[in-house]
Design a protein that fits this description.
With 834 residues, the chain is mainly β. Helices cover 5% and strands 55% of the residues. The chain has a 26-stranded antiparallel β-barrel. Strands 1, 2, 3, 4, 5, 6, 7, 8, 9, 10, 11, 12 and 13 form a 13-stranded antiparallel sheet that branches. A two-stranded antiparallel sheet has the order 33-34.
Amino acid sequence: MTGHPRRRLALLLACLFSGSQLAQAAPLMASSLSLSSAQPELSSGDEPSRLVPVMPDRLPDRFRDQAVASPLALRQSHNLQAPPQGQRPAQIRLTRASEKKKDKDSRPSFIIADRIEGQTDRATLAEGNAELRKADTLLFADKLTYRPLEDEIEAEGQVHLTQEGAEVSGPYLKLKLADQVGYFDQAQYQFSRMVSNTNNDKSPAPGLATPLPALPQRLSTAYGQAERINFEGENQFRIEQGTYSTCKPGEMDWFAKSSEIKLDYDRNRGESSHTAVYFKDVPFIYTPYLDFPLNNQRKSGILAPSFASSTRTGFDFSIPYYWNIAPNYDATFTPRAMAKRGMQLGTELRHLGEYSNTEAQFEYMSRDKELGDRRYAYNIKHTQDLGYGFATQINWNGVSDDDYFTDLSSRVVQTTKRQLPKEFTLGYGQTWWSASLQTLRYQTLNPSDKDVISQPYFIEPRVNFNARVPEWNGLDFQAIGQYTKFTHPTAEQGERTVFYPQLSLPYIQPGYYITPKIGIHATRYQLTQRAEGLPDTLQRTLPIFSLDAGLIFERDTELAGSNWTQTLEPRLYYLHVPYKDQSRYPLFDTSLADFNFSQIFSENRFSGYDRVANANQLTAALTSRLIDPSTGAERLRAMVGQRYYFSDPKVGLPGETLQQDKLSDFLAAFSGQVAPKTYVDMAWQYNFNNSSNERFSLGARYQPAHGQVISAAYRYNQGTVEQKLGTMDQIDLAAQWNLSGRWHVVGRYNYAFDSSRLVEGIAGLEYNAGCWVGRFVAQRLESTAGSPNTSFFFQLELNDFGQIGSNPIQMLRRSVPGYSKVNELPSGSLLSDE
């Protein structure tokens, strides 16, 4: 048969199949069968990028070569010979009879096969290397039937379905394409979604700022097999008698086997029934119901249990239950069993409203086995915008006894808590003035008789007033007012009223500034329970004058082959305050302020209003910065400063040795990036008169990437009697690093030379297997009373599924600056095993 009769036969069959007009193709497309143009086209609004690419290594062997060679090639149609070499074979476009609008559900479908027969408005049967393409759906099968009225596809043989984020294969599929409703028998699946990276969470650990870029979302992929997968709408899957894991096939170290698994990717939530979790093919957990997140966020349900061991609590086991009450309201209930202590119930409530924010934690133990009494703790924080300029704030804390934190906590920030505030504040603010009403009481903890601290004064109440009118006829006006009633069960009490109006004349130009300021500081006391011979009423009025001036020089420079802008910023600050004897004045809330670069430019060397230091002094400082001219980012900063006294200080605290020298201690500071990924921070306070270091701190941190960090710090503080501080001499080392391959080490060594004791020691190993991580961490923590507490943490984390064991993550993020979870590092990272 010649070519022309075959071409006429192809045209005839096309008309029979489609009932539509046929377009004659170009010469090279002489044997194509189509209801549209010779080239497949997307409907208006389609984006080619939405077509899901099919990786050849994920397709059946018989489809792999053709996908690589010609993924859009069309197979020979019924009764048509294959076209000559170099010409495109035939394709058919099937359109739903009800197609009217150009949206995702009405996009055309393309079927390719060795043999196609049927009527396109009823059913089309394709056999032999059959393919179906529609929008973001790609289907391979030995045999498929498409019913356009129902928009339903039925596929048999070696079936492989690829959609957005999903790949499923098996022997039989029945699916309504538009509604995404159907089922897949004897299926193997792979579902992929992007999830957030928890390594971007801010770490509370102290340390140097290391501006590493935030990590992008990462790909989370679930693998498994099932007797049947039910498609229940877009992003909705129900797996019957199947498995679930984030381990790749052939590397299935862990998996969950369930009678039913519901995956809801709209709510990012998974639920399973009668689930057994296997690790290394050994079942170790069974639960009749399991609720787990699909996007690395917590959902309502039982969270992974936690267990630990410490010298104070013994074996420690807890199993939290998380209740996601609403998108802005949740609760966590944590029963905790301690071998040496007994049962404890912890509760955490959180609410975030449009005008309010509430966090509350409660812990209760009906009976401590060692003490024989009940124990509890609570922490309530609440802020509320009442509208019309009014706002409230509550910070309420308390524990049952002085030893609560040292006995039942493993956190340094808690074991060193000594004053627990109970505070309420009501505030009101306008554009140029504000006022507040505050009450404040403390619970004082003295867990050790060797280090007893006194109870501070209660504030019942305090009224604050602050007003500022800038640029008022070239002047800057500010007024500070405060009334406080101080109460104490054993010491003198009284009321203090402060009023401090100030007037300044700022003159600011591009290269310099001068700001003279004058104010009147007035204070009045009304006291009770004073010692005999001391007055009950005291008044103090002091004029305060200051002059602040500075210059700013800039120059372009080159350093290490890069262009920089260097600044030189000298500053002078003169302060004059006349002397007034204040030895008979009470001390309610005043102490000696820390001597640093912030304080040397302040008007008072005391914190609080009970003392106003006399002054006739000049402070000189010099700052130099290195700035990237292209971004404005500061690379380095160096500062030096010192104060000169024209007259000796005469106002002091009881027991304080007053400054007798004309020069204050010398201050120096340096911070910034000194090498790629290397940051240094240094502060130094030196007494030239005594030739002694009053305070010195030096810290360095090297962090080339997330999860790879080494930090070292040395801190020395001679301490003063006035500040009630002893000498501090400590070294602090911390690191997280890759040992080799999948093994990582993490640790901290904080040692106090002044007391010859280990403040905190942490040593741990992490093993990253790709789809799971094992962590073992030991912590030794010095407490304020009694013997140190030693805790052990062991955790098995199944990626994007759950954690089992005691969770050391928060402790590591708090104690190791820059710590990151190794199983959430991006692909290609130095610590990533992907």
